[in-house]
Amino acid sequence: MEVAHAPVDGTSARRTDRFAGAVGRVPLPLGAKLLLGFAFVGLVGNQAYAAALAAAWRGDWQTAQREAARASAWAPWSAEALVVQADAASARGDRPLTAALLRRAVAADPHNDDLWARLATVTEGDEKARALAKAARLNPLGSGSG
Questions:
Q1: Residue 125 located in a structural domain
Q2: Which residues span the domain enclosing 77?
Q3: Tally of domains in the chain
Q4: In this predicted model, what pLDDT tens digit does every residue of 16-29 receive, in sequence order?
């Protein structure tokens, strides 16, 4: 965009300002781009997680599984979507998959006593004993689970 300016010396010569209107074209700093990227990832992951919870609440385990898997793909560090996937696997009677998903959930959130207690309900032997012991250490007063 060119803007004509009257010269200070009163002459009639025209000069153009190459920078007028350039604000919209200024590149974003890297930090801002990263922040926007993380916000986008968080938004998509949270939307998928919310859809998974809504489907689970309705008892639509197929949709809950699909949306929770999508949420896990967008937020692989989060245990919550893994728990919804475990709930869906449990509703289908798939105990080995339920245990595998809960193992991943406790790896993502190892200080969550409820996850350890839930893992104990779908495992046996030494693994069950270790999960119960970990849940008890994390919450000595107990949560009533198990």
A1: yes
A2: 28-138
A3: 1
A4: 555 555 555 667 67
